[in-house]
Write a structure and sequence with these properties.
The protein is α/β, with parallel strands linked by helices. The protein contains 23 helices and 13 strands. Helix 2 links the parallel strand 1 and strand 2.
Length: about 550
């Protein structure tokens, strides 16, 4: 290790993504990165390009091995943002009872305990501190709950609506063997569900049925083949199969399509129930009981994610003093209204009263979209990734460039200035939307693409306002964010500027992955503020 590294604090970055968190820590000059853990291959490429000489591991679970710990050595700080989607209704609408990402939060806690750093920082969605984000208690949690006195409460996992109940359905839900016998292959379920999801849009429903006709008829033959008139599940399957064949053998009208959806609904609902029940059993979720008074419900025990984290790491045996709360990136100089939950832990022996950093920017001097990207306005974007990867030679900066623009414009070669090619339909929409407006501002004749136009999120087809910070940067390609004054999609580089990545930080991978990496990242400017705050504690200056 160099003498330079010896004078700095060592960092391990878990779920590092492209490396925005690491980059912010490095910018302080007080930290160096020993290792990063990230399983996305494109994000790994980006991390390697921008953080040379850092060992990158694919599986965060490797950080728990004695071999890797010996290789890494002493670690001063662990940072990271484990994916966490909680157990909100949104997950159940997607036919998942359990978000597998939540196990990664547990992994983060386990790694902190294993590496025993002087400090740790966890960054996540602002809702993490709410009651919505919970773990369903599984059998492996019982000892941990008892050891650390973690608060739990009763929760319910709805499995099947009352309209579809039949005698003995709860017995099936408890039996993995019977579930496996009834559960369709994933491709079969998806081929029917993709049609069922369009049931409220007649035009899309008929188009979807036509598109998937061949696969649906193959499925229909499978469902018809196993009729048992004494088995309610197989009766529903049989009815769905007959309905599919009937639809395609007659005149394919809107009315016939709606009747088909009504006929396949019981089979679809049953398959969703089997899938959820299997998740519960596969994940060893502790079920207190099943009830069927108002539909089939699994009664389980749950604990909030934040209670789980704090109860374990604040325990006297582990010795961390913890603070947490929501920070706004705008308060720390980013031109973006990004609200993120940040949890900071410092060994109590260093400081027993930890506080969150305080930003120095306010409504009076928030940085704006214009501050971040105005100097790129007249530079044409590439639509081919290869051109963007090679980059463009930047002309001299305009004289009126903002302080932020000058800070981020740290390279003569501009990479990633790539946007999605504008179709005639998209261009028509772009021209109709003014700054601050979105998809809902369009006339009805331009809203034909989306399944349910009225429920489309306000971030879709959003034209940014130059004189304000942007909203939370996500995958702006999927959301089709529009440049404030140009009739085109926002480029990868412009999205990266809003996240406060300088131009010298280059993203790798395919176009969608680059947009996604930018959206997933911790803004380096926010990360740096947290890092500045952390090293003061490690220097022995409680603040």
């Amino acid at each position: 290790m160099s003498s330079d590294a010896e004078s700095k604090f060592s960092v391990v970055d878990l779920f590092s993504g492209a490396g925005g968190f690491s980059y912010g820590f490095l910018q302080t000059g007080r930290f160096y990165i020993k290792a990063a853990f990230e399983n996305n291959l494109n994000a790994q490429k980006t991390y390697r390009r921008n953080h040379r000489n850092v060992e990158i591991y694919n599986d965060v679970g490797d950080a728990l091995s004695d071999e890797i710990q010996a290789k890494i050595g002493k670690v001063d700080v662990v940072i990271g943002g484990p994916p966490c989607q909680g157990f909100s209704n949104a997950n159940r609408q997607k036919n998942h009872a359990i978000s597998q990402n939540n196990s990664l939060v547990k992994k983060y806690v386990q790694v902190v305990l294993h590496l025993n750093p002087m400090a740790f920082v966890m960054e996540n969605v602002s809702m993490l501190q709410s009651e919505v984000h919970r773990f369903y208690v599984d059998e492996t949690d019982l000892e941990t709950i008892s050891k650390y006195g973690i608060k739990t409460s009763s929760s319910e996992i709805p499995l099947l609506d009352a309209d579809f109940l039949f005698p003995g359905v709860d017995d099936i839900a408890k039996d993995i063997t019977r579930i496996s016998e009834y559960l369709w292959k994933e491709d079969d379920y998806l081929s029917l569900n993709v049609v069922f999801k369009t049931r409220n849009n007649p035009k899309k429903l008929c188009a979807s049925l036509t598109k998937h006709k061949k696969r649906l008829l193959v499925l229909a033959n499978k469902l018809i083949a196993f009729l048992d008139e004494n088995d309610p599940v197989l009766i529903n399957d049989y009815s769905a199969g007959i309905a599919i064949k009937k639809y395609f053998s007659a005149v394919e009208t809107d009315k016939a399509a709606r009747e088909l959806c009504a006929s396949i609904m019981p089979a679809i609902m049953m398959q969703r129930m089997f899938s959820k029940a299997k998740e519960i059993l596969d994940n060893h979720i502790k079920v207190e009981r099943y009830s069927s008074e108002n539909g089939l419900v699994a009664h389980v025990t749950s604990m909030t994610v934040i209670d789980y984290i704090k109860s374990i790491l604040e325990a006297s045996s582990n010795g961390y003093s913890i603070t947490s709360g929501v920070l706004s990136a705008t308060d720390f100089g980013a031109p973006q209204k990004r609200m993120r939950f940040v949890l900071i832990g410092i060994k109590s022996s260093i400081c027993d009263d930890v506080k969150l950093p305080t930003g120095t920017f306010t409504d009076a001097n928030y940085r704006t979209v214009e501050d971040a990207i105005k100097d790129l306005e007249e530079i044409e974007t590439a639509t081919e990734l290869s051109d963007g990867d090679n980059g463009f030679e930047l002309p001299d900066a305009p004289k009126d460039i903002s302080e932020l623009g000058r800070l981020l414009r740290d390279s003569k070669n501009l990479c990633n200035h790539v946007s999605t090619a504008t179709t005639p339909e998209a261009l028509e929409r772009f021209m109709a939307i003014r700054q601050g407006e979105n998809f809902h501002s369009l006339p009805s004749e331009l809203k034909t693409t989306y399944f349910d136009a009225e429920r489309t999120q306000n971030t879709i087809y959003l034209r940014l306002k130059y004189d304000e910070p942007s909203g939370t940067v996500v995958n702006v390609r999927k959301s089709m964010w529009i440049h404030p004054v140009k009739n085109r999609a926002l480029s990868i580089r412009e999205a990266a500027r809003l996240q406060t990545f300088p131009d010298s930080f280059v993203f790798c991978g395919n176009k969608n992955s680059q947009y996604q990496q930018v959206g997933n990242a911790v803004p380096p400017m926010l990360a740096r503020a947290v890092a500045d705050h952390i090293y003061k504690y490690l220097d022995g200056v409680c603040s």
